[in-house]
Amino acid sequence: MVKRAVRSERCKNCNFCISSVCPSPEECIGCNACYIACPNEAVELIDIEINDYITIYVNGEKFQVPNKITVKKALEMLGYKFTKFPEKNKIFAPCEVGGCWSCALEIDGELKPTCVTPVRSGMRIETEIKQTPKRLVHGFSGHTVGGVGTPWWLKGFIYIEAACFACGCNFRCPQCQNWTTTYCGKDIPLTPLKAAEIMTKLRKSIGVDRMAISGGECTLNREWLVEYISELKRRNPDKEARFHVDTNASILTKDYIDELVRVGMTDIGIDVKGIELETFKIITGLDDDDIAELHLKAEWNALEYVVNNYSDVFVGVGIPYNKEFMSLNEIRKIGEKICGINDEIQVCVLDYRGEFRSRIERPSYDEMFKVWKVLKEVGLKTVICQTRYGYISPSGKFNF
Ligand code: FES
After folding, report:
1. Predicted TM-score of the model (pTM)
2. How many angstroms does the Cα of residue 72 sit away from the middle of ligand 1?
3. Which residue from 297, 278, 345 is spatially nearest to 317, judged by alpha carbons?
């Protein structure tokens, strides 16, 4: 039995699934990418029986698998294990829309994401990868505001940062603020070298020192990110260059953080999406308790580890706020926990609005000011709150 996607009457013909997601518009291969990515939740999955079998080769061994399914599905049928949280001897497949390429293997001699690549008769798959990693990356451009890991006092100049956005995410946030990149699986993949080359040119052309990568979730494809930062540093050896990683930190382990710092990361923005498991699940759209708990713990552990071990790395924390999914009491608890790590950490509260699948209303200025006051009361020294009109600075001043 395999899944096939069908459009329901909720379809608004926005065409996002065809233009940016579906790897096989002529014939569904059951990858479910459109089901994950449709902003209108207009895709339904139905079970179908397949009686048409083809031959594929995995590491030189011959197997029969159903036709018109993904390589990932075929490998699962053959006993290969895929995982949502990085684990030894399992293939990490966190986004499942073809964006992160963490699940990529060598398919007919080329690196391709298994989650959205259809099997074909005679296909040869190698599970040992010898090729340079790739992934989809969007939106290389100059930014005037920066991200969570950008020092707040830099905001307000023309360009303060050159940024790019990695496609694919392990979260399914209903209010995702960057969903056309997060769920994009159709674009030309970039090697770390190519991405570093584009970023270096951009830095020169707009005259900034800061280079940021955000997403989607940029940490998903570890090999790619480590090579990218390393190559970026090689091309930008001057003391002024800053390398900023904006992340949900949900898969950052101590050794991953050590590796990023070793290759050049100088600034990190970590989003904490709650302190209570239930809030975290609502914000991230994750419904599996065990996976959600692993991610939630990893986020907080990563924050504590980087602050306690790397005083040279600038750390900013982002908190998405909307009264629909977080109480002021939880904001207080988050503030206390951050204070317990270090009361000087920069905390930026983001006023989340309805995007992607969510229709929540953007918080009012007064609501954000209350959040600011709660975080100041618990003792945090550097609190910035984004509002619909501008931001509230650590001194309580309003800035456009
Ligand atoms: S899991 Fe396949 S591309 Fe991200």
Report:
1. 0.96
2. 10
3. 345
